[in-house]
Amino acid sequence: MSSALTPEALNEKVKAVFGRLAIDKRRLHSSQLSRRSVPAYVAEWVLENIAPGDGPVTSAELEKIQAWADRFLPLPEDAKLIRNRLLNGEVVKVLTPVEVEVVLTRHKRGRAAQLKQLGLSEVEIADGIVDQYPDLLKQGMWGVAELTDTQAGVALTSFKPMQASVNLEIYKNKRAALTLEEWRALLLTSMGYNPWKFDEREKTYLLCRLLPLVEKNLHLLELAPKGTGKSYLYENINPRVRLVSGGNISPAVLFVNNASGQWGLLARFAVVVLDEVQTLKFEKPEEIVGGLKGFLANGRLTRGGLYESASGASLMLLANILLDSEQRPINSLLVNDLPEFLRETAFLDRLRGIIPGWKVRKLSGDSFAQGVGLKSDFFGDALLALREDMTASQHAYDAITLAGERRYKRNEDAVRMIASGLMKIQFPHGQVSAEDFEAYCLRPAIELRQLVWDQLYQLDAEYRQYDEEIRAA
Hints:
By secondary structure, the chain is α/β, with parallel strands linked by helices.
């Protein structure tokens, strides 16, 4: 791939092609909004509305941003102050995540908004707001909420969401205006990385982190040492992506709460990411892995036969791995440090691939985006919208057949799905040559699935009746 591309040239082209859909990522880091523990898609929305511009944030812009944030973007420790203002009769406007619960009990029926960052759990909300923004009932939405105190309690009287609907055709058409090298660099910048600090293989591995967003039920494991930014993307890309880091994981959290009938994370979010799975506390691990095996195989959620539902959620597992002095895994069995119940071959087999994150260099200060990228809210929504585009899936199905007389069907299915996802990520407009499809979609797909297959081959002799190497015909 050509190396004549420069950061300056790419920045100018991205601004010319995408216009207001692009943002200078340097502004995010210099705005200090990250100190308020808000994801990038929220911080960039604030920047665009309060202090739009290019280059790092100036001292005057910073003062303006901080003044706005102090007024409308409360810190967790400000929750009591907000409630006190409501008690004093003030109408309060805040930028905050809002979720809505539907209560259907014998003694109470209705809808109640939850503003967890403010410590408010039973907030009255107008039916019209919920009908207009149904995502409030799913994973919740970020937006500007207007609150007031009434005799019946706190009420949410108006809501202006951050998220706007995405036009996928615009995204595809604008991709056609960029070369593959330009597009890959733009993708990485939009993810929050500095593309000029990684080689081509590392770029591909980083782009593989987007796979669960663009494909339904694409379940992956990434193994990498600390400091490679495994969770950074998922924290900042989209509210329909849920990162779970620390705490207890139970069947009720993942699948469904049989007592209340409330669906768990895999039913409510497009992507569920379990970070540092070695340190998570799993309640009833046998029940969890049993439920996961069924879900990973057929996309069905159930628990004890009481409830059942289909889900297109993708599960992403992030785990640390120990390396030797040459930065290679210490154990030939890569999954050796996973919890024992996650090393079960029937579970591993249902993962589509393993991302070799240990092959990506550790992040340093200059590894983060320094140029113009796509706004996180637009970018994340576009990626998720690609889930419904079947062009790449059909292309992968027609183009890929594995070689060998003892092929394993799940290997072929996984390679096709991963290759389809990589085509959606890099060639969303559907224009890809046979050479580029092989180099940037098929080969990486085989590599990711081969790593799963290697684990199965070591752990269980049953798999050795099939070809050891996965190859395209």
